[in-house]
């Protein structure tokens, strides 16, 4: 369990998150939602060590020694795929995936793990030597997910994975995440605006409003529907 305890965070003197406490179950799919500017990305950055909180702390498995950076989080089974650019366009698909394994001591595992990952994304199997920039948006998203999964994480953190994707590809991506969750036990924390497609595939939902937690519970409850109507 990953817990953020009484986190206040922001940029310079601007407070974005105010006394936020929330817990994430690494085996579940949790969606974080809220209006623009409510603190969703700030919450992820703070959790992953990209932004130092003004106050509060983070615990992992009950221990108050949370990793200090995304690189440290990988050792704890947590990998983040940020918003925006999904791939290194002038690198091959294989190299885009392999770059996430630079910290491995034993390189011999890569081929076996890559084969397992490609079972989730068979369309990439014949594109490994192609430049990633030549792939479609949906295929580039597959590469980004494969880069995270190659580390066999307990939890993948995704910041708006639907950006730039066509509606059909958004649906395919979200259903693929649920499939991966069921087959491997990998959990997901997803910041997302495209809720109509995603919500039915998630376990938990968190709504941020004006830097505070407005909802933190199951993603299929009547209370959530009322909250969404009120906030959006």
The total of beta strands comes to 9
Q: Round the Cα radius of gyration to an integer and report it.
A: 18 Å
Report low-confidence residues grouped into runs of 5 or more. none
Tell me the helix content: 25-40%
| Category by helix and strand content | alpha/beta
Order of helices and strands: EEEHEHEHHHEHEHEEH
> Sheet bearing the most strands, described?
6 strands, mixed
Strand order of the largest sheet: 5-6-7-3-8-9
Q: What gross morphology would you assign?
A: globular
Question: Could you characterize what this model shows?
Answer:
It is a single chain. The chain has eight helices and nine strands. With 232 residues, the chain is of the alpha/beta class. A six-stranded mixed beta sheet has the order 5-6-7-3-8-9, sandwiched between helices. A three-stranded antiparallel beta sheet has the order 2-1-4, with helices on one face. A hairpin with a 2-residue loop joins strand 8 (204-209) and strand 9 (212-218). The longest helix has 18 residues, at 167-184.
Helices and strands in order, then pairings?
Blueprint: E1 2-11, E2 14-24, E3 29-33, H1 40-47, E4 55-60, H2 70-75, E5 78-81, H3 93-98, H4 110-118, H5 137-149, E6 155-159, H6 167-184, E7 187-191, H7 195-198, E8 204-209, E9 212-218, H8 222-231
Parallel strand pairs: 3-7, 3-8, 5-6, 6-7
Antiparallel strand pairs: 1-2, 1-4, 8-9
């Amino acid at each position: 369990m990953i817990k953020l305890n009484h986190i206040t965070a922001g940029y310079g003197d601007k407070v974005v998150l105010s006394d936020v406490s929330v817990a994430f179950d690494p085996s579940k799919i949790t969606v974080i939602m809220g209006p623009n500017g409510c603190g969703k990305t700030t919450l992820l950055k703070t959790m992953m060590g990209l932004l130092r909180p003004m106050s509060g702390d983070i615990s992992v498995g009950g221990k108050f020694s949370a990793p200090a950076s995304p690189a440290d989080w990988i050792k704890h089974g947590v990998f983040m795929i940020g918003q925006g650019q999904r791939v290194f366009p002038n690198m091959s698909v294989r190299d885009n995936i392999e770059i996430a394994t630079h910290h491995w001591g034993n390189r011999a595992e890569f081929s076996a793990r890559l084969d397992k990952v490609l079972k989730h994304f068979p369309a990439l199997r014949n594109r490994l030597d192609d430049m990633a920039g030549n792939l479609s948006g949906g295929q580039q998203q597959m590469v980004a997910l494969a880069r995270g999964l190659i580390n066999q994480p307990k939890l993948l953190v995704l910041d708006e994975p639907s950006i730039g994707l066509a509606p059909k590809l958004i649906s395919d991506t979200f259903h693929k995440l649920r499939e991966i969750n069921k087959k491997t036990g990998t959990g997901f924390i997803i910041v997302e605006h495209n809720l109509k497609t995603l919500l039915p595939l998630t376990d938990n939902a968190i709504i941020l409003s004006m830097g505070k937690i407005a909802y933190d519970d199951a993603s299929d409850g009547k209370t959530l529907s009322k909250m969404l109507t009120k906030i959006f």
